[in-house]
Amino acid sequence: MLGAAGAVEFITCVKSVMENYIHATVGYQVPDEELDLNYTIEPETSKTVNYAISNSLGFGGHNGSILVKKFTD
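Structure (tokenized):
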């Protein structure tokens, strides 16, 4: 998966936008009172996802980002 990780993340972003699915924050178990971030404890499907961004950061500075937007007429 080292070479295909960016493609898998892109597919995940596309499916998240298509199905309005927000993944849970990985490894989040104990809340920290000093951090005011928008964590997702359980997977969310009741909110509309219009955009998703995929960042691929590679060795030697080979970096790329792609933004996925829901199609509207």
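The chain has one domain: 5-69. The domain at 5-69 is CATH 3.40.47.10 (Peroxisomal Thiolase; Chain A, domain 1).
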